[in-house]
Amino acid sequence: MISFHSLEDRMVKTAFRRLVSGRGEDEPAFERLTRKPVVPSEREARENPRARSAKLRVARRRDGGD
């Protein structure tokens, strides 16, 4: 998920934390693929000023094993 504002990023971070924790289940339904957000490089931010505030966080749904 890409967020462009600090409040959006906090909501995404909190939601990912809840999804990854599993809430008492044996195994969580999601796994976090990025520990920290991926941010644009200096070059990307210079070439595309709108990208400078973007943060990418990635989680993947785990296979249920069915």
Write up what this structure looks like.
The protein is α+β, with helices and mostly antiparallel strands. The chain has two helices and four strands; from the N terminus they run E-H-E-H-E-E. The strands form two sheets. A two-stranded antiparallel sheet has the order 1-3. It has a two-stranded antiparallel sheet with strand order 2-4. The chain is elongated, with a radius of gyration of 15 Å.
Summarize the structure.
The chain has 66 residues and is α+β, with helices and mostly antiparallel strands. It is 33% helix and 15% strand. The chain has helices spanning 6-21, 42-47; strands at 2-3, 30-32, 55-56, 59-61.
Comma- or semicolon-separated keywords:
single chain; 66 residues; alpha+beta; two-stranded antiparallel ribbon; 2 helices
